[in-house]
Amino acid sequence: MIQPLFNWRSLIAILAIFIVSGTVFYSQYLAKKIASEEKQKVEQWVAASKAIMNNPGMDLTLPSLIRNEQQSIPIIETNEHDSISGYINLDSAKAVNDKNYLYKKLKIFRSENTALEIKLSDNPYTANRYYYGHTVLLDEVRYYPLIQLFIVALFIFFAFYSITVQNRATQNQLWAGMAKETAHQLGTPVSSLDGWVEMLKESNTDPKIVSEIQKDVNRLKLVSDRFGKIGSKPKLENLDLVLQIEMMVEYIRKRSSGKVHFSIDTHGSTFINAKISAPLFDWVIENLLKNALDAMEGKGEININILQQEKQIFIDVADTGKGISKNNLRKVFKPGFTTKKRGWGLGLSLSKRIIEQYHAGELFIKQSDAGKGTTFRIVLNKNV
Q: What's the rounded Cα separation, in Å, for the pair 366 and 378?
């Protein structure tokens, strides 16, 4: 099936970029236009002021009207030494209370626009200079796109966040539903097999054969019980972590080649108490051990380090396998991701869910080096 080049999310994103870009360019166009008009108004105001100063006997109605109508653009008047001699359209209260207010404004105006001059005489050194700023309208037009970009970015963030949360909730429901359905489907044949085992016991079948079959049936019961607990809050009990981990190591040891060496370091602790769900926690350890075996391809070392601290317990499962590539580090816990030819890629994803959602702990890759191995870390909180 050919995948479309663009999905609806991409189209919406492209459309949003075009709209925002168009708004930005148009706002900049308006800002330049307003700035040009403001400069023209200041030039007219300066020309009117010049006419009033240099032609006291003529009709000054029009120049006075031009000067009086200019009530928005801030202007500071200075003499030839750049000492402030007057101002308009600035905060008078601040000018009185703060001696540096006008000089701060003057510095800003100098950086924004070139001063206009009115010569008072033929002497080139005697002239008034007029420095001007810009109106609030120009500020609003300039900064409007930035505000719009912020609002759009905020909207996109919350939209993607809500979609992510919704997808995660749907995914969790899907996994929980699949797990419960698997447990339900296993229930009937397991019960039937249990009955057949009882019949074999009564028919004088070789006890060794019956014992091995019973082990496999018990194993199926355990798998069914594990899947049945996914999606519902399991009951946590105070159990010995050392004992639980030793049992799982022994179980995996019997099913691995003699070329794999297992070791457990408890730092001198013979009993470490923790609140766990035994079937689910065992499942996590089993998944990590099997993952380590697959990475080592039949030979190497698996070291389990259990460190008890005041508030937390750290469990590191390290192998000497091929390691995980940097490209796959972020994908390891995603459902469906696997580098093996066989498998669904659900083991690590379910393990992470079991530790983090049901045991309020953490499961992550502590370290992984290509060709040297990988260390997974489980963190359990004692106050759960």
A: 9
Token pair listed for 384: 């759960």
- Give the span between the Cα atoms of 264 and 242, in whole angstroms: 9
For the record, the structure tokens of 255 come out as 């099913």
Per-residue pLDDT, averaged over 129-134, amounts to 87
Q: Is the pLDDT of residue 220 over 60?
A: yes
Instruction: Name the least confident of 2-11, 180-189, 363-372.
Output: 2-11
Say what percent of the chain tops pLDDT 70.
Answer: 88
**Token duo for residue 362:** 């953490």
**The two three-digit tokens of residue 219, written as one number:** 């194993």
Give the span between the Cα atoms of 328 and 288, in whole angstroms. Answer: 17
Print the SS3 string covering the chain: CCCCCCCHHHHHHHHHHHHHHHHHHHHHHHHHHHHHHHHHHHHHHHHHHHHHHHCCCCCCHHHHHHHHHCCCCCEEEECCCCCEEEEECCCHHHHHHCCCHHHHHHHHHHHHCCCEEEECCCCCCCEEEEEECCCHHHHHHHHHHHHHHHHHHHHHHHHHHHHHHHHHHHHHHHHHHHHHHHHHHHHHHHHHHHHHHHHHHHCCCCHHHHHHHHHHHHHHHHHHHHHHHCCCCCCCEEEEHHHHHHHHHHHHHHCCCCCEEEEEECCCCCCCEEEECHHHHHHHHHHHHHHHHHHHCCCEEEEEEEEECCCEEEEEEEECCCCCCHHHCCCCCCCCCCCCCCCCCCHHHHHHHHHHHHCCCEEEEEEEECCCEEEEEEEEECCC
Instruction: Return mean pLDDT, the chain.
Output: 82
Query: pLDDT (tens digit, 9 = 90+) per residue, 41-59?
Result: 888 888 888 887 777 667 7
Closest CA to 355 of 331, 384, 326: 384
CA distances from 66 to 33, 51, 119, 314, 337 (A): 21, 11, 20, 80, 75
